[in-house]
Amino acid sequence: MFETITVDVDSRGVATLTLAREDKHNALSAQMLADLTQAATDLAADDAVRVVILAAAGRTFCAGGDLGWMQEQMGMDAGTRAIEAGKLATMLGALNRLPKPLIGRLHGNAFGGGVGMAAVCDVAIGVDSLKMALTETKLGIIPATIGPYVIARMGEGRARRVFMSGRVFDAHEAVELGLLARAVPADDLDAAVEREVLPYLACAPGAVAAAKKLAQDLAERRQRRPWRCLLQRLRRVGRRRRLPRGSARFSRSGGRHGWCEGECLLHAHLIETPQRCIWSRLQAGQKRSTTT
Predict the structure, then answer these.
(1) Mean pLDDT for each 10-residue chunk of the chain (292 residues)?
(2) Which domain holds residue 201?
(3) Of 30, 74, 109, 149, which sits 20 to 30 A from 285 (CA to CA)?
């Protein structure tokens, strides 16, 4: 059914969603983004599914965005680039809104978008040998699409330790930062994940879904002003006419124009779209408060 992922559901209703581009270190291609979005939609609608485990095949959990896919976008018009870039935001939003517990099983390294995928999990458990990094600034771009989820997971103070530098950090620091709930030896990973699964099987599925939605709604209302600030900052950065040093690695020809401008503008577009429902709820609440 899917080209880049697999989905297996056991007799208890525990689904394992596995990234399966191991030859590419599970880099996020357009097809993988589409597959993940569809899988999240299917799992959300399946009443037999109680819990979802997000896992990966191969040595790496997720190496981030597929550079080949990014390079292809350089030759597209602005409208097409917006559609392509929006696929990452749509996928992250679908996983984040999944009305089931989402438990991350990180058996290997996670970079860039892979960190974002860990951040949208309700709980993420990783092996104690893994490495993580937000590598976007080394490529001349910013972690915009994954940014809201990373900040929500870490908190601003902790996020600023790694959000801008692109430096690699280990599993134990990932626990300190809040990205991982625990770091365990590889042989203990499956048992640690199972310990997260079991409590949910004794809960009412509808109550679990409602509690998760409540937590997200409360957090989204508190984050209204940061979202507005983020969009404004992205639009300002997007006016740059030249790429920062280091960004030319996206182009085999070493071209110096277009990527930073397109990247930032597209992220501003794609972030705003998934938040429309949030803004509408907030505006409705403001109208009610002014009329009472």
Answers:
(1) 96 98 95 97 97 98 86 75 81 97 98 97 98 92 90 95 96 98 98 98 97 90 58 54 44 39 40 44 48 47
(2) 5-291
(3) 149
